[in-house]
């Protein structure tokens, strides 16, 4: 039976104020000229920040320097293998979001499933989209012990336990297993097997949210995507807030829902022109306002989806989300104002169309490019990309390097090549 999604919320004076601030800042940022090299540097910093804060929300233990070492040098930190995989997964998914922002027109369920697969597969861009869960999951509160109290079941010990060979654990420790933590409170050290681990985990923490049953997940996800693609007149920031909330509410996977919800939000904002050149991080706001993040998401009279959560008024969440957007946008604006280039270069940059500014990044990597490469960057058909190249030749933006039909390539004209320096 089809499910219709009709979110319940009100447009409050606070929401209107945030929307106006977001639009003012967005317009100001769009007009600020940045050289491609500075833009790429800021964008990479934003990716690292987003990766750090989004995974930190889920308990990732790597600090920013370690994250950079993992991503740039493939560094390894013993005992933190799972954390490393989370970092690689989220960073790769962000790159996929940026690519789709230039090549797709609307979000489909397959995009969401693909993002989740990348997140959960150590950043494998070829991973097949993850099917939705086939059983019930629950959200429980967390235990936050000091590091010396934690006993982590690594892959080797986990294999040993699940093969039926118990592990010896001390009393009054925190057990970390399959991403969950449970307190082992025993009178004496005890050998613990897989069945006891799961029992300890499941009986330790309080349920804070019971998502919908597995049978309802596919129609709920279909309804969400349909709603996203049919509400063209709704302000994009409000639409992104609702998308984030509803995905977290459906909780379509056993793990990785929070990260995927934040990636879905980022993809939607990119597609609708709120990417701010890819140099802001909403994840930082969430992490710094974490209690408010969870409180705003936890609306409704019951922790059970079927006992009021589905019909809950989510105005408080939208207010929280838009406040974060406004704050993040303003931070980017101040950062960009400090990074603006030399006055003579600014005049040249201001004359460029959005696609011309974007193509400068391609020329940072390649001295010459082909119409095919340009078409791939923007998701254009061959004839359209060839026509665009011809237009830029006429305008003096590009110069032809190789005139043969099969190997035709282009370089930036001297006037614009100085922007790459």
In short:
The protein has 421 residues and is mainly alpha-helical. It has helices spanning 13-31, 36-57, 64-73, 81-103, 109-120, 155-162, 194-204, 217-230, 236-250, 257-271, 282-288, 290-297, 315-339, 343-351, 354-365, 371-378, 382-395, 414-417, and strands at residues 139-140, 150-152, 167-169, 173-177, 180-184, 190-192, 207-209, 398-402, 409-412.
The total number of structural domains is: 3
Query: What value does the average pLDDT take?
Result: 81
Q: How far is the N terminus from the C terminus?
A: 59 Å
The CATH topology assignment of the largest domain is Fic-like fold
Protein model, in words:
With 421 residues, the chain is mainly α. The protein has three domains: 220 residues, Fic-like fold (Orthogonal Bundle), CATH 1.10.3290.10; 64 residues, no CATH class; 78 residues, Winged helix-like DNA-binding domain superfamily/Winged helix DNA-binding domain (Arc Repressor Mutant, subunit A, Orthogonal Bundle). The chain is 56% helix and 8% strand. It is built from 18 helices and nine strands. The chain has a three-stranded mixed β-sheet, with helices on one face. Strand 8 and strand 9 form a beta hairpin. Helix 1 packs parallel to helix 13 and helix 4 packs parallel to helix 10. The longest helix has 25 residues. About 13% of the residues have low confidence.
């Amino acid at each position: 039976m089809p499910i219709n999604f009709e979110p319940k919320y009100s447009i409050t004076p606070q929401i209107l104020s945030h929307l106006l601030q977001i639009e003012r800042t967005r317009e100001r940022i769009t007009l600020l000229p940045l050289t491609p090299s500075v833009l790429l540097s800021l964008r990479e910093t934003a990716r690292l920040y987003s990766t750090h804060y989004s995974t930190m929300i889920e308990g990732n233990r790597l600090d920013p320097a370690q994250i950079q070492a993992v991503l740039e040098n493939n560094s390894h930190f013993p005992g933190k293998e799972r954390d490393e995989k989370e970092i690689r997964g989220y960073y790769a998914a962000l790159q996929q979001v940026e690519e789709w922002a230039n090549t797709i027109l609307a979000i489909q369920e397959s995009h969401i499933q693909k993002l989740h697969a990348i997140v959960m597969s150590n950043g494998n861009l070829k991973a097949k989209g993850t099917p939705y869960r086939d059983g019930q999951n629950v959200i429980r509160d967390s235990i936050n012990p000091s590091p010396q109290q934690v006993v982590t079941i690594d892959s080797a010990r986990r294999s040993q336990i699940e093969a039926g060979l118990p592990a010896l654990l001390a009393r009054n420790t925190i057990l970390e297993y399959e991403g969950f933590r449970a307190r082992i409170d025993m009178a004496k050290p005890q050998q613990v097997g897989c069945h006891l681990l799961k029992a300890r985990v499941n009986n330790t923490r309080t349920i804070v949210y019971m998502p919908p049953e597995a049978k309802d997940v596919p129609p709920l996800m279909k309804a969400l995507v349909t709603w996203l693609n049919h509400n063209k007149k709704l302000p994009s920031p409000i639409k992104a807030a609702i998308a984030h909330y509803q995905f977290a509410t459906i909780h379509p996977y056993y793990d990785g829902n929070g990260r995927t919800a934040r990636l879905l939000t980022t993809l939607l904002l990119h597609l609708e022109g709120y990417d701010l050149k890819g140099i802001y991080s909403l994840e930082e706001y969430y992490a710094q306002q974490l209690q408010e993040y969870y409180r705003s998401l936890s609306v409704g009279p019951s922790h059970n989806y079927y006992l009021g959560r589905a019909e809950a008024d989510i105005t408080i969440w939208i207010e929280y989300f838009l406040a974060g957007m406004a704050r993040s946008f303003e931070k980017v604006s101040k950062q960009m104002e400090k990074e603006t280039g030399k006055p003579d270069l600014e005049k040249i940059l201001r004359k460029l169309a959005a696609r011309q500014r974007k193509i400068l990044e391609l020329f940072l990597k390649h001295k010459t490019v082909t119409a095919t490469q340009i078409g791939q960057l923007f998701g254009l058909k061959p004839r359209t990309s060839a026509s665009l190249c011809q237009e830029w030749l006429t305008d003096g933006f590009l110069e032809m390097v190789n005139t043969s039909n099969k190997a035709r390539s282009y370089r930036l004209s001297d006037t614009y090549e100085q922007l790459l320096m």
